[in-house]
Amino acid sequence: MVTDRYITxxxxxxxxxxxxxxxxxxxxxxxxxxxxxxxxxxxxxLYFTVKDDKSRVxxxxxxxxxxxxxxxxxxxxxxxxxxEVSVFEPYGQYQLYARExxxxxxxxxxxxxxxxxxxxxxxxxxSDERKKPIPRYPNEIGVITSPTGAAIRDIFxxxxxxxxxxxxxxxxxxxxxxxxxxxxxxxxxxxxxMHMIDVLIVGRGGxxxxxxxxxxxxxxxxxxxxxxxxxxxxxxxxxxxTISDFVSDLRAPTPTGAAELAVPSMVELEERLDQRIHxxxxxxKEKKQNEQERLSRLQKSYAFRYPNQxxxxxxxxxxxxxxxxxxxxxxxxxxxxERVQRNHAQLLRKHPEQLLQDSSKGLEDLRTSLYKxxxxxxxxxxxDFAHATSKLDALSPLKIMERGxxxxxxxxxxxxxxxxxxxxxxxxVQMTDGKIDAHVYGLEENDSYGKE
Length: 452
What we know:
Structural class: alpha/beta
Order of helices and strands: HEEEHEEHEHEHEHEHEHHHHHHEEEE
Number of helices: 13
Strand order of the largest sheet: 1-2-3-5-4
Radius of gyration: 64 Å
CATH superfamily of the domain at 132-264: Hypothetical protein af1403, domain 2
CATH topology of the domain at 132-264: Rossmann fold
Helix content: 40-55%
Number of strands: 14
Distance between the termini: 116 Å
Strand content: 15-25%
CATH class of the domain at 132-264: Alpha Beta
């Protein structure tokens, strides 16, 4: 039996988990169902089952995701859930890891909210680079909200309490209903056309998602995004988030919080001013004291007590410096003169006339050397010639013939042996002083010639 084909249960479970985790469609699941077996763990994690009439799936929502939910999940509740599917390895079962949950009653609005949020975020309308800074000390504050709601009273009271010098311009609008979005957009455009508003507060008090929906409309979001005036969004309570919050330059948790963010606190400014005045007075006092001490040290210094002696000393130091300067200048002048002389001598050596004279002298020396060398070579050749001539003369046949020898020729060929002639031949005998014509009458060969 081949056992290598078998794997462990853990390996199988991990393989299935990797396959599910790598499936994009299972990483962003939108699920509608009914809650059952809802249990809230002591650590804040929420465990439950999502079911319909045919199936069910085990689910978990960790504390970091469920702490901001605006409702309490209960058994039998119809909900909309967004999350991802993975495998819980110890039990080898797949389950849903929920990230968001809403009651099914507002499902369509919630889906529209998420879709618009993704769209605008993809376009970059939420990026920090688009955010405009809120002025620190605004003179004119525009408030776009309902004139009859609690939000305007909270904003007005907070601004006047914190920064009474600021002026407030209210742009009354509808904050809910079918006409609310157009009302808000017109108010934002009007505030921008006035060219006098430093910062805008756009918002309303809390309410349900339907009541806050005007601030989730795309037209309102784009109007806030294109506003030249910095916009502070103040919609609902601290846990309420709208599209306007994401596109605005600054989000406030409440209308009162928006007023606090829009203006500084006069009390805090006065306290800060008092602190800086105190620090400035203390710094000036310390500066004055330091300068007085410095003046006292200077007045007690040697220069002020004995000015004549100090002047005499400085004059003597001046004489020393002048003498030192004079010596230094003299050394510098002497060095410069010496350098000029060296350069002048070098320039003269490089002068064309001097170079020509030097070249002419060199040429004459070369000519003399060449003549001497030629004479030496000729004399040597003459000696060699005389020696060779002497040797040739000593070896000349004519010198031999002067001692009584002669040379015999037959037909211009030197006769060296009796075998070269025969009786009756005509030969010539070369003597020292001439030639003799002769006939051969007989031959006598020397038998001992050439024998040892």
